[in-house]
Amino acid sequence: MSINSLGQLYFEQLQIPPKQSRATKENEEDTSDDTTQENQEELGLWEEKFRNFVDVKDNGPASIGLDFSLHGFEHVYGIPQHAESHQLKNTSDGDAYRLYNLDVYGYKIHDKMGIYGSVPYLLAHKLGRTLGIFWLNASETLVEINTEPAVKHALTQMGPVAAKEKGRSQTDVHWMSESGIIDVFLLTGPTPSDVFKQYSYLTGTQAMPPLFSLGYHQCRWNYKDEHDVKAVDAGFDEHDIPYDVMWLDIEHTEGKRYFTWNEKRFPNPKRMQELLRSKKRKLVVISDPHIKIDPDYLVYAKAKEQGFFVRNHEGGDFEGVCWPGLSSYLDFTSPKVREWYSSLFAFSVYQGSTDILYIWNDMNEPSVFRGPELTMQKNAIHHGNWEHRELHNIYGFYQQMATAEGLIQRSKGKERPFVLTRSFFAGSQKYGAVWTGDNTAEWSYLKISIPMLLTLSVTGISFCGADVGGFIGNPEAELLVRWYQAGAYQPFFRGHATKNTKRREPWLFGEEHTRLIQEAIRERYTLLPYWYSLFYSAHVASQPVMRPLWVEFPDELETFSVEDEYMLGSALLVHPVTEPKATVVDVFLPGSSEVWYDSKTFARWEGACTVKIPVALDTIPVFQRGGSVVPIKTTIGRSTGCMTDSPYGLRVALSTKGSAVGEFYLDDGHSFQYLHQKQFLHRKFSFASGVLINSCADKRGHYPSKCVVEQILVLGLKKQPSSVTSHSPDGKAQPVAFTYCAKTSTLNLEKFSLNIGADWKVQIQ
């Protein structure tokens, strides 16, 4: 990598306004810089007009920029959020990638304009090296990318030998920010895993989520009242579909005043929460950053009294229109404001809330309906007299931080929070989950959600998802089924719809479609032990949960541009069906020395090839990688909390060498005891020479569990065994019942019971 090789280092210093400057210089009889400032004035660099808005820049233009040349690289990724391909595109003939958090309803796809969040972090990958550039700046930022592929260089040479020597690709990345300082971190890898760790040292790892939040979430704008909530909740039980969280949008409040309840629609919120609690379910409600201007609204009155709102350029409280009408905006960049906001979540303050209520931060770009580009004016003033232009992209980050802290404080530091945010920045992973915002119920939005989530994942934000079914519009039944199948294999799994759309609870599309959606959601719950273990790895080791193929197969050029399939951890490859009326999909199975097993049919495939997989509407192509062990739940409850003591199974997929390894993580699923008291289980499963061993992966952890492994499925066992015995910790050997299918080379062990947290082995002879 070389820096400033194109000479684009740029740093504008803060200046005195032209009128003051001229007055000073007239007195001093010095007019040396007058021409520059007059030119800047003519160009509108001191005062910009956008429709009816005038952006006065007190210190003049203050932009910065720098270029980086990446030698030998032509694959670059990152800088979310854009509804674009995972691999970043060449911008030399079009728009630069813009990082500027905006509320964009039904955003365009394949567009480089900024949407809800910004992470100014880019990764580059080539054979033998991965690196990262973290441009720490929260003002509006543009990124230009110019890639010259190796082939182009080679064609300009005189012959094959010269082409071989000099035909080297290069990518130039030019960062430009409206304000701030040049503060850039270069992450040198050399592996993808190394870069993820290096970035996490700077911004933190993914927060360990409470287990319930990995289940299915049901949301719409809006569930009308307590009776509606009760009916939807009962509908899931009636149709035997598990779910964990009911969500309430803005209409649950009294006139969009957050931390209140609409007394007509939700007269008894605690009773409603007790109903959900009885089934071990949770409630999430919305809390936006705009506060209705109403002296009788306690939250507004207290914030006004203490000067906790963002100020306008003239020094008064900034006022803008949002859901409640005229509103002021809390200044979350102030530690005092964050501390006060956190205190609002205390049970004694937030009337009607209980410990199963969690939070959703929306509209926090911030969204201002009549503002420039539907956001706050850049010359609004924050704590410490910083202009909004300096920190626009980090505003929502600070709201999520304060919300997460509030949920921790209300439990006296004992319980993990769950906070979903729409706006985000580098490091938002420390405070919860992110989603892709107001998508549309069209096939193209289902398809683009995969690269969007992969980009979030490699930039540190593992807990991410897209609204299942599409937020805007009415999905046809086939699209809804395919979206549930995709969402079940993505980290944050929530169905959501805007108001005035048709109701779309999973049982409203006919018996057959109900069954297919039920199957997809139940498969999610089957895999929860694997999901939870992956999130632990993200939390402690910075490894993404959802991974582009190039992360797992960094030495295989064919994987570098793949974005229609991905890995979940290192064991599962998922290829969602994203085309209507599809009957077959082409699935690329990477790895010349790998073997893959269809998770439904157990068919075995060699790696490094593309295979045609038939897909009826009940099929989502998922393959388990040879050499892996995936822990599952063998029985499904109506929520994660109802499955705490249910038994486990192991899916053991053998490599070409007949071996396999996997990990399993377990704790209480909700508290910080895993951290403070080391109350957790971290186990390792290994299979070699016909012996499956369960051993301790981290001796620091201790967590008593009654749960047992009651089923083991071994894929790729080439001959039928004569006997199978289990060996418990006390040395007792017990025969194990088994069935073997020669057609699929699968061995199924059942009717046994071995504690998940104990050392034991199973011998196949």
CATH fold call of the largest domain: TIM Barrel
Biggest β-sheet description: 8 strands, parallel
Reported CATH architecture of the largest domain: Alpha-Beta Barrel
Overall morphology: globular
Our count of helices gives 17
Unreliable spans are 153-166
Q: What is the number of E strands?
A: 45
Q: What fraction of the residues are assigned to beta strands by DSSP? A: 25-35%
Q: What's the CATH H-level homologous superfamily of the largest domain?
A: Glycosidases
How many separate structural domains? 3
Mean pLDDT: 95
> Spatial order of the strands in the main sheet?
24-23-22-19-15-14-13-25
Provide the helix percentage.
10-25%
C-alpha Rg, in Å? 28 Å
Question: Based on helices, strands and strand pairing, what is the structural class?
Answer: alpha+beta
What does this entry show, briefly?
With 765 residues, the protein is α+β, with helices and mostly antiparallel strands.
Walk me through this protein's architecture.
This protein is α+β, with helices and mostly antiparallel strands. It folds into three domains: 59-203, Sandwich (Immunoglobulin-like); 211-285 and 335-365 and 385-545, Glycosidases (TIM Barrel); 563-581 and 624-764, Immunoglobulin-like (Sandwich), CATH 2.60.40.1180. Helices cover 22% and strands 26% of the residues. The protein has 17 helices and 45 strands. The protein has an eight-stranded parallel β-sheet with strand order 24-23-22-19-15-14-13-25. Strand 17 (319-322) and strand 18 form a beta hairpin. The longest helix has 16 residues, at 395-410. The chain is globular. It starts with a strand and ends with a strand.
